[in-house]
Amino acid sequence: MGSIRVGTSGWSYASWRGDFYPKGLVQRRELAYLAERLSTVEVNGSFYALQRPSTYHRWRDETPDDFVLAVKGSRFITHLKRLRDVEDGLARFFGSGVLDLGPKLGPVLWQLPASMSYDAALMGSFYRLLPEGVRHVVEPRHRSFCVDEAFAQMREHGIGCVVSDSPGRWPMVEVVTSDVVHVRLHGHTELYASGYAPRSLDRWAEKCRRWAGRADVFVYFDNDARGRAPHDAVALRKRLDG
Description:
By secondary structure, the protein is an alpha/beta fold. It has nine helices and nine strands. Helix content is 33%, strand content 18%.
């Protein structure tokens, strides 16, 4: 039976202050506060810029021993280079301190551009460049990835296919392709904004239990625009712990 972890995509948002975060909580304590209530978080600052080793060390040291940080891969690799000629970019990314998270390192997320269609040769060459000993997941945002060939290729290389819930924006694929199911909940009815109703959370809890029969499950709420993400994450975790 796999484990199930629930968290949010990012944690430093102004709209959470005085709401999820108590009024007066200093910003540098926000991750520690979240880590007391959830079991994982998705680092998304690494998508926009390389972080420093000291930053990864701080995140590692200020979270509980059983806490896990998923890390979002650099957009330089996925969006600017579009997975081509990325050997140096990958070396810089993993050399920036990502691996220093040690046992707290969760899946490394590679979010692809919505305009990137499936190219078996390109994806195969990218998968072969990824370092072993790290769990990798891919979030495709083009419907051409929704084919058996793409899923079989992910299985061959041990790559997880992200379950992405967005209100009609990108395809949602619920295919298990590795020992990780990585779920990103972008908003139930409005992208990045709307919350998840109790019945919807009940359904997601049941899906998580089913997936956990085959893999470790990581769920991240990305509906942060109106501050719903942490509340929905806590509510889902209570359902799974109950």
